[in-house]
What does this fold into?
Amino acid sequence: MPDFTVDIGGLQALGKNLDHVGENIEQATKRMEDIGPDSIGPDDLDEACADFTSDWSGGLKKIKEAVTGIKGGLDNAVQGYAELEESLKSSLQRMAAKVEEATAG
It folds into this structure.
């Protein structure tokens, strides 16, 4: 018989980690915006930093969108598994009560 278990607590911990990833991306993006051009030094360096910031800001935005999507799907899965588990528990309790009634009477 196949064994299928879902570690809801583990999925919730993964969700918290994804939240932290999103927060870290936001902080990194903010730090890059705060640096801005004309704050590093020579013009060549400022231009290179501006290009770097522009490239990485777009990439970080895409990563954040992906993390947000994954987190939403994970939250839905956790909710679905929790509801299924509660439903199974309730059904088994009702069945046990009926068996107990039948054997007591």
Observations:
- The chain has a mean pLDDT of 87.
- Residues 29-98 form one domain.
